[in-house]
Description:
By secondary structure, the protein is α/β, with parallel strands linked by helices. It is about 45% helix and about 10% strand.
Amino acid sequence: MKTQLIRGIFLKVVYPLLLIWGGLFKAKKENLLRFLINVNNSLIRRSVKISAKKMLLLLPHCIQRSECNIKITHNVYNCEGCGKCEVKDFTQLAKDIGLNLFVATGGTLARRIVIDIKPEAIVAVACERDLSSGIVDTYPIPILGIVNERPFGPCFNTRVDIDKVKDALNFFAGSKK
């Protein structure tokens, strides 16, 4: 509980002040957002264990290849498993451990999914902006955030290291610290 209080103070008080400070001193916003995500993840890893059935894995729509004709935003299990992106791996992972898996097109849809699913813990993959706002907006739900890789720029054919996602899921499931 003490860690949750510290996390709450950091997210609701320190973080906004940090953004103001960053704006005054022209700090790169992406670095400040990444800092928030890293501090949040560190605080979460000090405190929580959750059953896998009460977890949510939330992915950004941009993880799907842009040339794919099958859209997965309404149902990620529409993926045909061609292997050109990681979606196939995530759907199999979710099936294997009985995990709630959703793909969101942005922060508004992600928040709606969280309200509908009511998870006890979330592993979320997104850019710094979407992750940081999601972490703040859904407090006190514990979220481990994983920043996606953007080799082609933002919101286009992004990637994520599935081992980082598995590590976060294992943490919440109590398998690994």
